[in-house]
Amino acid sequence: MRVLLLIGLLVSQQIAGQEAVDLPAGVEHVVSGGYWETAELSGRYRIVVLNAGFEHVTPRVYVQWISDPTRTHDMEVMANVLVSELHPSTVSVGLPEPIYSDDGFFMRFESTNPWTLENETLVLRLGLPGEYEVAEPQVR
């Protein structure tokens, strides 16, 4: 019992000493992965799923292009794009699934149609900062 109490105290002290991250309360999922590269910069993709609303909660999905840090350039969000292809009244979006392929980097989203309550699949092929395109759901 003393060991558990000591471990609990050490963990709480370690957490208390860390800087708090100020995220919006509506953040449902965050998934990072993949890789992009231009002549000047390179980085990774980040998907953020936010829920907003009161009686009718509506998810919003954003694709972000995060640059890698360099000696002269800190890590930063190079582009932030709202995914407009999701049904505007979608009631839920599951955890985005990264798909690594020889044809590029893809992200799969499973969502629920509010009218039929059926699952729908959206697959995006992510490109250079600010660019993505809808791909076939069969991509694996």
Topology of this structure?
Blueprint: H1 2-16, E1 27-37, E2 42-52, E3 58-67, E4 77-82, E5 92-93, E6 97-101, E7 104-112, E8 119-126, E9 132-135
Antiparallel strand pairs: 1-2, 2-3, 3-4, 5-7, 6-7, 7-8, 8-9
Walk me through this protein's architecture.
By secondary structure, the chain is mostly beta strands. Helices cover 11% and strands 47% of the residues. The strands form two sheets. Strands 5, 6, 7, 8 and 9 form a five-stranded antiparallel beta sheet that branches. Strands 1-2-3-4 form a four-stranded antiparallel beta sheet, with no helix packed on it. A hairpin with a 5-residue loop joins strand 8 and strand 9. The longest helix is centred in the first third of the chain and has 15 residues, at 2-16. The model is unreliable at 1-13 (pLDDT under 50).
